[in-house]
Design goal:
- This protein starts with a strand and ends in a 17-residue tail after the last helix.
- The protein is α+β, with helices and mostly antiparallel strands.
- The radius of gyration is 16 Å and the shape is globular.
- The chain is built from 4 helices and 10 strands; from the N terminus they run βββαβαβββββαβα.
- Helix 1 runs parallel beside helix 4 and helix 2 packs parallel to helix 3.
- About 35% of the residues lie in helices and about 30% in strands.
- It has one domain: Ribosomal Protein S5, domain 2, CATH 3.30.230.
- Bound molecules: manganese (II) ion (MN).
- Manganese (II) ion binds next to helix 2.
């Protein structure tokens, strides 16, 4: 059974298409018009081993905010759709990833309830190309709200803004992969005592 999510989301500000295959090989086709964000979504697919297509046509004449946020919302919705009934998955995942001087620690529970805890160094450089570094938290908030997962992301230390953001996406990718993968010991079992996720 394939685990694929496909979401099209169109407003007066943006038009977004996201397709994700949780059981892919890390093949990506990403185009949002925000170069650094494309680079981050590429990390998400590659290190999550998700096949990921993202096509966003947003109001970049204003700034990159709507484009980045709406893409994250659609990505969260597509991820939730792809997870389906969550039977037979690990449910929890965590990964710690260094990128030179920076470190990201990510823990996820595919719980059905949205909750984000996020810390990263203050006083980071404000921009990476056209990517506003305060958007990282906004991306995670948007993704969590739609995917309905509990997500804890911490960067205890780091200096370079590019490194600080990129290690978060790499660790997120790997944590989501571990949580969404099928547990061979739990075939047909929903990983919840409540009977619902
Ligand atoms: Mn916003």
């Amino acid at each position: 059974m394939s685990r694929i999510g496909r979401v099209e989301r169109t407003t007066k500000e943006t038009s977004v298409l996201v397709e994700i295959d949780l059981d892919g090989t890390g093949r990506t086709d990403i185009s949002t018009g925000v170069g650094f964000y494309d680079h981050m979504l590429d990390q998400l697919g590659r290190h999550g081993l998700f096949d990921l297509t993202v096509k966003t046509d947003g109001d970049l004449h204003i700034d990159t905010h709507h484009t980045i946020e709406d893409t994250a919302l659609a990505l969260g919705a597509a991820f939730k759709q792809a997870l389906g009934d969550k039977v037979g998955i690990y449910r929890f995942g965590n990964c710690t990833v260094p990128l030179d001087e920076s470190l990201a620690q990510v823990t996820v529970d595919l719980s059905g309830r949205p909750y984000l805890v996020h810390t990263e160094p203050e006083n980071m450089a404000p921009m990476i190309g056209s990517y506003d570094t305060t958007m990282t938290r906004h991306i995670l908030e948007s993704f969590v709200a739609q995917a309905q997962i509990a997500l804890h992301v911490h960067v205890p230390y780091g200096r370079n803004a590019h490194h600080i953001v990129e290690c978060q996406f790499k660790a997120l990718a790997r944590a989501l992969r571990y949580a969404s993968e099928r547990d061979p010991r739990a075939a047909g079992i929903l990983p919840s005592t409540k009977g619902a996720l």
